[in-house]
């Protein structure tokens, strides 16, 4: 069986993608689970990554504000993968 996929193409400024990941890091000698906010411009694939101790609405807003400041603007739309309500 062959895997099927639809190639996606985007214009500059058309969209960004957002998702969370969990990683383990050592903070002050203690193994700690952290939440990593990943944002990526869909056209250029330029990433922005920020680490938080938890996932909450405030962290989503903070990650977006910092990514948009880093990129110098935002896009027409955001694409979100399996956002959970907590």
Mean pLDDT level: 93
Number of strands: 4
What does the largest sheet look like? 4 strands, mixed
Lateral arrangement of strands in the main beta sheet: 3-2-1-4
Rounded radius of gyration (Å): 15 Å
Query: DSSP helix count?
Result: 1
The low-confidence runs, each spanning 5 or more residues with pLDDT under 50, are none
Q: Hey, roughly how much beta strand do the residues contain?
A: 35-45%
- Specify the structural class: alpha+beta
Q: What is the terminal separation in angstroms?
A: 38 Å
Relative helix content = 10-25%
Shape: globular
Order of helices and strands: EEEHE
Protein name: Mobile element protein
Jot down its keywords:
86 residues, Mobile element protein, alpha+beta, 1 helix
Describe it for me?
The protein is of the alpha+beta class and 86 residues long. The protein has a domain at 15-72. Helices cover 17% and strands 41% of the residues. The chain is built from one helix and four strands. A four-stranded mixed sheet has the order 3-2-1-4, with helices on one face. It is globular. The relative contact order is 0.25. The mean pLDDT is 93.
Summarize the structure.
By secondary structure, the chain is of the alpha+beta class. Helices cover 17% and strands 41% of the residues. It has a domain of 58 residues.
Set out the fold topology.
Elements: E1 15-27, E2 30-41, E3 47-52, H1 57-71, E4 77-80
Protein name: Mobile element protein
């Amino acid at each position: 069986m062959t895997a099927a996929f639809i190639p996606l193409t985007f214009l500059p400024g058309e969209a960004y993608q957002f998702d969370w990941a969990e990683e383990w890091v050592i903070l002050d000698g203690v193994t700690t689970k952290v939440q990593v906010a990943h944002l990526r411009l869909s056209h250029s694939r330029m990433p922005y990554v920020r680490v938080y101790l938890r996932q909450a609405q405030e962290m989503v807003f903070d990650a977006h504000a910092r990514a948009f400041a880093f990129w110098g603007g935002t896009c027409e739309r955001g694409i979100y993968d399996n956002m959970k309500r907590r």
